[in-house]
Design goal:
- By secondary structure, this protein is α/β, with parallel strands linked by helices.
- The protein has one domain (about 5-195): Rossmann fold (3-Layer(aba) Sandwich).
- Helix content is about 35%, strand content about 20%.
- It has six helices and nine strands.
- A seven-stranded mixed sheet has the order 3-2-1-4-5-9-8, sandwiched between helices. The chain has a two-stranded parallel sheet with strand order 6-7.
- α4 (about 110-125) runs parallel beside α6.
- The longest helix is centred in the first third of the chain and has 17 residues, at about 5-25.
- It starts with 6 loop residues before the first helix and ends in a 5-residue tail after the last strand.
């Protein structure tokens, strides 16, 4: 098979790196990426954090393409990709300091977004961080005409997908033990939301 390629990953990797350089701490040891897609983000970003083990995940049909990228890149701190379906699977049985996901919330059904947020609440501990990249609505308003059009196109393909409301994401993260600590404006009308895990209460 040919190595998959995402033009969006090529465009947004540098802006995402700038934020991750602020969010990732020298003491962080493991990052779990949800919905790694082609694997391009891991290949570009992971070498900038050599002390951080990068764990890419996605649905089963994405893993073979990702492996092509990783086998070619030979980056020491990227682990082999594993299947993770947020509606059915648990995280790998490790302690993660960061969960990073890009361009997934508008693709996943909202019930699966909620499943992921609940899972993060169960598995992450105090001061772990969650970083979510993608387009969001605010006060039920799109931030641009292009995002409104993008939402229409998404819903035409799958009525249960679509640009999510920031307030819904923030409220659900709060229910699962997180507080928002940053909301970065990104190129192409995207955002990067950073959440911190509050003290764990069993």
């Amino acid at each position: 098979m040919e190595k998959p390629f995402s033009p969006a990953c090529e465009r947004n990797s540098d802006p995402i790196l700038e934020v991750l350089e602020e969010v990732i701490l020298p003491s962080d040891r493991r990052l779990l990426e949800i919905g790694s897609g082609t694997g391009q983000h891991a290949v570009y970003l992971a070498p900038h954090f050599p002390a951080l083990e990068w764990y890419p995940t996605d649905l089963s049909d994405k893993l073979a393409g990702m492996k092509l990228w990783f086998q070619e890149a030979k980056i020491q701190n990227i682990q082999m990709p594993t299947r993770l379906d947020v509606a059915r699977d648990d995280f790998p049985k490790l302690k993660f300091d960061i969960v990073f996901t890009a361009n997934t919330f508008h693709i996943m059904h909202w019930k699966d977004c909620k499943s992921l947020m609940k899972l993060m609440g169960k598995r992450l501990r105090e001061n772990s961080r969650v970083v979510i990249y993608g387009p969001f609505k605010y006060n039920e308003e799109f931030t641009s005409e292009s995002n409104a059009e993008f939402d229409k196109n998404l819903k035409a393909r799958d009525p249960l997908s679509g640009v999510r409301a920031f307030e819904d994401v923030n409220n659900n993260m709060a229910k699962n033990g997180f507080e928002i600590v940053a909301d970065y404006e990104m190129p192409a009308n995207n955002r990067m939301l950073v959440f911190n895990r509050l003290k764990f209460s069993p």
